[in-house]
Design goal:
The chain is of the alpha/beta class. The protein folds into three domains: about 1-220, no CATH class; about 220-300, Helix Hairpins (Orthogonal Bundle); about 310-485, Heat Shock Protein 90 (2-Layer Sandwich). It contains twelve helices and eight strands. The protein has helices at about 1-20, 20-60, 70-95, 100-125, 130-145, 150-170, 175-265, 270-300, 315-325, 350-365, 425-435, 480-485; strands at about 310, 335-340, 345-350, 375-380, 385-390, 440-445, 450-455, 465-470. The protein has a five-stranded mixed β-sheet, covered by helices on one side. The chain is rod-shaped, with a radius of gyration of 43 Å. The two termini are about 75 Å apart.
Length: about 500
């Protein structure tokens, strides 16, 4: 009972949707039927031409004995003429856009085919007792054309009625008459059911296509709006970041001037120095936040420039590590640097490498308690330079390790305010690594520490002018360290 109700509900939904798109559906159905009728008409034209030739060659001697062969000959000529006229009218309709509905043309061809097959069947009934031509015709119509239930009922009922009258006129044997009538009724009923099923599937396909098109349009519109909103967001962050940078530079410059004046005047005041240090540290922190926002907008807009040059990656990592060690020497955390090789020249972006390593080291310092250790190691593996930053800090839960490189994700939001962060540092670091063709991964045990590993391609640029060896690099990392570590308070 439930399946019947579901079927009834499905039919009602199809009908309601068909009403919604009635004009479009009818046009689509008619044009599909016309297209198929053109193919059917061509086949009938070729078939009747072949049969006409056979009439002239094979059946002509039999006309004297059986008049049915004469009728057969004229029926082929008549059908050929009717189909040719049908094609001419259809072509004129397409060319001159006549007001006559195209529905008339496919119904006309159905009737030409149907009544020709009826005549062939009745004519053959008088010769050999077979009515297969009519039965095959209505089955082909039900399978090939999309006829509405009303059209199918009228077409099959009228043709069956006329054909039955013809059988009554020709057949006088009761058994043969009953057998033929049963065949006609059963096949006509089957053809009607098949037409309805065919029409239903055609309707359902049409509705599905319309729904898919509407869903696609809605999706495209939503996607377009999302792109607009994303562009607005990106532009907003870019503009606000640049707008914040100007007053921040003024504050930072004012703090430096005040600091210089205090030093020149030999005036020492603990409170004043404390507030100057607070201004400087928070200026660094704002600089870091603004730089991160600008980087995010550039990454999202695919507008981030990567400048590859040949550098000694061992020297770079060692210098950064030592600078951090000097900066945090009073925090009671040991930093150990270790490498399997003394020199390795690879193509990379120096500024990006500095930002990545400083970000990883600042995270390690941030989440490692006093007395802990941080290990920075470099080794070669599968034509890659692997740089690992390992600490003995709080670790990362298993459920968070896949999310840690997503934006605005923080492992422990209950961390003391002595260590703050925006949750975008690792996301930016991951993007900066991938821009250089590398990858970054994490291994961690909760309560025991974490290890971040960067893998960079072991390749170099074939240009001697771009080699920046160890003895050529003299960089002061302290300001960058202060900026990167600005969210770690004493």
């Amino acid at each position: 009972m439930r399946s019947i109700l579901n079927k009834y509900s499905e039919i009602r939904n199809i009908k309601s949707n068909i009403k919604k798109y009635k004009y479009e559906f009818e046009n689509h159905r008619i044009y599909t039927n016309i297209s198929r009728c053109e193919k059917v008409g061509t086949i009938l034209l070729i078939l009747n031409t072949i049969l006409l030739i056979m009439d002239l060659i094979v059946y002509k001697p039999m006309r004297a004995k059986t008049s049915s062969y004469i009728f057969l000959f004229y029926s082929h000529i008549t059908v050929i003429i009717l189909i040719l006229l049908w094609f001419i009218l259809l072509k004129m309709h397409k060319k001159y856009k006549k007001t006559l509905s195209l529905r008339v043309y496919y119904i006309l061809l159905i009737n030409i085919s149907l009544y020709w097959c009826m005549f062939m069947a009745l004519n053959n009934l008088s010769i050999g007792g077979q009515i297969s031509a009519y039965l095959i015709c209505i089955l082909c119509i039900s399978a090939l054309l999309y006829i509405s239930p009303l059209e199918a009922f009228v077409t099959y009922f009228i043709s069956m009625l006329i054909f039955s009258l013809g059988i009554f006129h020709i057949v006088h044997d009761i058994r043969s008459l009953f057998s033929n009538m049963v065949n006609v009724v059963i096949v006509a009923l089957f053809a009607y059911i098949a037409s309805n099923i065919n029409f239903k599937h055609f309707s359902q396909d049409f509705i599905n296509n319309k729904n898919n098109l509407e869903s696609k349009k809605k999706l495209e519109e939503t996607n377009r709006k999302l792109k607009e909103y994303e562009k607005l967001r990106t532009d907003f962050f870019a503009n606000i970041s640049h707008e914040l940078r100007t007053p921040l530079n003024v504050i930072y410059c004012a703090e430096q001037i005040m600091e210089e004046n205090v030093e020149k005047s030999n005036f020492y005041d603990n409170t004043l120095n404390k507030y100057l240090d607070m201004i400087k540290q928070n200026s660094y922190r704002l600089i870091r936040i603004i730089e991160n926002l600008i980087d995010i907008t550039k990454i999202d807009a695919l507008n981030f420039d990567v400048n590859f040059e040949n550098y000694d990656i061992i020297r770079i990592i060692e210098d950064i590590t030592m600078s951090v060690a000097d900066f945090i020497k009073d925090r009671g955390i040991a930093i150990i640097f270790d490498t399997e090789i003394e020199e390795k020249i690879i193509a990379c972006d120096l500024n990006l490498i500095e930002r990545i390593i400083l970000n990883l080291l600042s995270n390690s310092v941030k989440f490692t308690e006093k007395g802990g250790s941080i290990f920075v190691k470099i080794h070669l593996e599968d034509n890659k330079v692997c740089i690992s930053v390992k600490d003995t800090g709080i670790g990362i839960p298993d459920c968070m390790q896949e999310l840690i490189f997503d934006r605005f994700i923080q492992v422990d939001k209950s961390i003391s305010k002595s260590c703050e962060g925006s949750g975008i540092g690792l996301a930016i670091a991951k993007s900066l690594v991938e821009m250089q063709g590398g990858s970054i991964s994490v291994k961690s045990v909760l309560g025991k520490g974490s290890e971040f590993t960067i893998s960079l391609l072991d390749i170099s640029i074939n240009d001697d002018t771009k080699n920046k060896c160890a003895n050529q690099l003299e960089r002061n990392y302290m300001k960058k360290v202060r900026i990167e570590f600005s969210d770690i308070y004493e």
